[in-house]
């Protein structure tokens, strides 16, 4: 069987259709933003890639088609980055998000020049925490009852990774900068 290996490249406007497909793929994507038609997908992508945007948005691709997104929203003044990600339903459970997160975290704390990355995930979304730990993030705390979801208050686990933290062992994905 052929081994499929995803790659990373910069998000581009042509990815809007694939972004819409990803948002349609699972109801759990609803918390990632307002994308329920092509115009909203175009606006979502446009916001992430417009000149001067603080977002470093990378498409996780298979055969150049976007299947997931890895993004670092940069706070330049503090050299911090808010780290976030999603994967279309059909491509989940293969370790691709974890590999992409580890690859982008190394890049962000290396050539991109950031010194701290941070993220948060709802505690009832444990797979997101597994992705974060795989990418070398360490849990720093819990924001108790942070979100109100379907009438229930939900805790959020907060994670950080510093430039001085050890790198995890992982198989880096190929990154295409242009
Ligand atoms: C969270 C999300 C990105 C995970 O994507 P994924 O492609 O399935 O993740 P991976 O296949 O890379 O798996 C990562 C790890 O989670 C583990 N995992 C899978 N299901 C799990 C579960 N129910 N509980 C705990 N860990 C789990 C995997 O075993 C893997 O760990 P390992 O590498 O140590 O074996 C995906 O579910 C998603 O897009 N969800 C909707 C958006 C979202 O919640 N984004 C995060 C917001 S904070």
Structural notes for this entry:
It is built from four helices and eight strands. It starts with 6 loop residues before the first strand and ends with a strand. An eight-stranded mixed beta sheet has the order 6-7-5-4-3-2-1-8, sandwiched between helices. The protein has one domain: Gcn5-related N-acetyltransferase (GNAT) (Aminopeptidase, 3-Layer(aba) Sandwich). Strand 2 (55-62) and strand 3 (65-75) form a beta hairpin. The protein is globular. The chain has 178 residues and is α+β, with helices and mostly antiparallel strands. The site of coenzyme A has 21 residues, from strand 4, helix 3 and helix 4.
Summarize the structure.
With 178 residues, the protein is of the alpha+beta class.
What overall geometry do the principal axes of the alpha carbons give? globular
Uncertain segments are none
Give me the number of helical elements. Answer: 4
What is the CATH topology classification name? Aminopeptidase
By CATH reckoning, the class would read Alpha Beta
Report Rg: 16 Å
Q: Roughly how much helix do the residues carry, as a percent range? A: 25-40%
Largest sheet: 8 strands, mixed
Structural class: alpha+beta
What is the subunit organization of this protein?
Answer: single chain
- What is the fourth-level CATH superfamily? Gcn5-related N-acetyltransferase (GNAT)
Number of domains: 1
Number of β-strand runs: 8
């Amino acid at each position: 069987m052929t081994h499929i290996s995803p790659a990373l490249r910069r998000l581009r406007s042509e990815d809007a259709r694939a972004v819409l497909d990803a948002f349609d793929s699972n109801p759990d994507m609803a918390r990632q933003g307002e994308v329920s038609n092509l115009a909203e997908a175009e606006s979502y992508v446009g916001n992430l890639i417009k000149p001067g945007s603080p977002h470093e948005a990378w498409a996780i691709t298979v055969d150049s088609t976007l299947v997931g997104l890895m993004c670092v929203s940069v706070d330049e003044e503090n050299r911090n980055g808010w780290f976030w990600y999603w994967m279309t339903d059909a491509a989940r459970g293969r370790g691709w998000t974890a590999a992409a997160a580890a690859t982008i975290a190394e890049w962000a704390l290396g050539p991109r020049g950031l010194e701290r990355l941070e993220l948060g995930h709802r505690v009832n979304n444990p797979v997101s925490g597994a992705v974060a730990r795989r990418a070398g993030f360490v849990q720093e705390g819990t924001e108790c009852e942070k979100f109100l979801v379907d009438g229930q208050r939900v805790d959020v686990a907060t994670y950080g990774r510093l430039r001085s933290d050890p790198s995890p062992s992982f198989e880096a994905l190929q990154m295409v900068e242009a």
